Amino acid sequence: MKTIVIKKYPNRRLYDTENSKYIKITDLKKMIIDGANIQVLDSNTDEDITRTVLMQIITEAETAGKPIFNAVMLQQIIRFYGGDMQGMFAQFLQDSLDMFTRQQSGFEDLMSSSPISTMTKMAEKNLQMWSEMQKNFFGMNTDKSNKNKD
Question: Which residues are paired to 37 by β-bridges?
Fold first, then answer.
């Protein structure tokens, strides 16, 4: 999928270079929800500020309705910053979100069968995906600790 480049100007305006028009942060959020891959660049420096803008969208969403992140979760996440496990934790979160997304997209296929069959298939898929993710996650950890022993 093509990445849509958004330019952010000093006056905080966002410019969609794909459609040649100014957009609001709510428009950008809708583009992302609809599946667009975006990259936000500072108009003066061409610095990639995508993460900052995405964090702004998340912050606004967290304050607007029922939040995804509670205080306990946020404190736990903060504790990983700067530690030895930061990279592994980031990979774990990414793998978890990828797995959840795959599961969600496959959910519609499962719903066409009986409820008991659907639940059984979902449980089997979940177990298999978690097993694979843990194997990959702990395999990464083992590889790193083996390198440190050399």
Answer: 3
Domain stops at, among 11, 45, 64: 64
Query: For the whole prediction, is pTM greater than 0.70?
Result: no
Same domain, 76 and 145: yes
Torsion (CA) 44, 46, 47, 50 in degrees, nearest 10: 110
| pLDDT tens digit sequence for 60-94 | 999 988 899 999 999 999 999 998 889 999 998 99
Residue that is last in its domain, among 46, 64, 82: 64
**Is 21 within 8 Å of 13 (Cβ atoms)?**
no
The predicted-structure confidence for 31-69, as pLDDT tens digits, reads as follows 999 999 999 999 999 999 999 999 999 999 999 888 999
CB-facing half-sphere around the CA of 102: CA atoms within 13 A: 13
Q: How many domains does the chain have?
A: 2
Q: Does residue 43 contact residue 10 with C-beta atoms inside 8 Å?
A: yes
